[in-house]
Amino acid sequence: MQKSNWGALLSAAFLMAISAIGPGFLTQTALFTSQLGASFGFIILASIIVDIVAQLNIWRIVAVSGIPAQDIANKVIPGLGYALAIMVAFGGMAFNIGNLAGAGLGLQVLFDLDVSYGAALSALIAIGIFLYKEASKAMDFFVKILGVIMIFLMLYIAVQSNPPLVEAAQRTFMPEQFSFTALVTIIGGTVGGYITFAGAHRLLDRGIKGAENIPTIDRGAISAIGIASLMRILLFVAALGVVSAGFAIDPNNPPASVFQWAGGTIGYKIFGLVMWAAAITSVIGSAYTSITFIKSFHARFNQHASLLTVGFILLSCLLYAAIGNPVQTLVIAGALNGFILPIALCMMLIAAHKSEVVGAYRQPYWLTASGTLIALVMAYMAMQTILELAQKLPE
């Protein structure tokens, strides 16, 4: 592989992975480990398989076609691309509110800074990256560095917690407990909403497209899932070590209690750094990907993509300040994001067999079949989530 392609591949893989590793990712992993114990390893393994199939389908079709997902959607069903762009942008905006809250919390732990001030400062750092004249290179460098730092810090906490690795490995293949809700939540947290398109659209921006680049595209998709999964596995074994030692994980802040029990005061400070890094990189990934869904709709949007991205982050920050507690917004956005993966997968599976989209390329049968199954299951679960939300709404 050429050096330029390798750099572009790593950029796309890290952007997708780091977009997935946000405050919700940390919280869900710690919480489900406390509930399912070592059996959560099976959930992680199953989610990795599903995530790889989803990513291979989406990355291949986007890169082979050479056009972003919303333009593909418009070729499949006129107008669908606009609907998809609105869903992705709304979901990205809503989750950015939570990401900024997580960034503020991280700086509070590190420097005893007020959460609101920490969120505003984090937003300014993200905005500064996109205002920099070499914004593309700055973004790639920033997410790679923070991604590597997070992995090494999580490795330290995982070792400190002294987890029962033999039991974890055994229950990964022979679980004692299973939770379908946990599986769907973990899948949605890794490839749901805007996240599934982050790396694919980054490949387009870096010029990697066409059927001749399929080996590179596949490596990028698998690498992205691998990076995100490595972080989840490390947090899983760290939390498992804490639970196995008899310590209780605080349901109000599961990841913080894992870090604190495993590493004491130093562990708590490491939690602050990991939370901030996870949150701010998710802010960047969400803003970048959301704008890639909008900029192709008008030439002026494409010309001023960096300013649109800055505006997206600024609006997220203002909404965070206005809303304060973003729980209801996140719940609605979560339900909406549940539909994005099955819609996107169905759209890609149809597009894979349209010559005006992919030319002479033919999607492998196993990818089409497995992708169809995943889309149907995720659509069912998204509908169940909507029905549950409707029952909880006041009459």
What would a concise description of this structure say?
With 395 residues, the chain is mostly helical. The protein has a single domain, classed as Up-down Bundle (Amino acid/polyamine transporter I). The chain contains 17 helices and no strands.
**CATH H level: which superfamily?**
Amino acid/polyamine transporter I
CATH topology: Amino acid/polyamine transporter I
In DSSP terms, counting alpha (H) and pi (I) runs of 4 or more, how many helices? 17
Instruction: State the end-to-end distance.
Output: 59 Å
Q: What CATH first level would be assigned?
A: Mainly Alpha
Describe this structure in words.
With 395 residues, this protein is mostly helical. It has a single domain (3-392), classed as Amino acid/polyamine transporter I. The chain has 17 helices and no strands. It has helices spanning 3-20, 23-36, 40-65, 69-76, 80-111, 115-131, 135-160, 165-173, 180-191, 195-205, 214-244, 254-292, 299-303, 305-323, 327-351, 355-358, 365-392. Helix 2 packs antiparallel against helix 9, helix 2 crosses helix 12 and helix 3 (40-65) runs parallel beside helix 9 (180-191). The protein is globular, with a radius of gyration of 20 Å. It starts with a helix and ends with a helix. The mean pLDDT is 87.
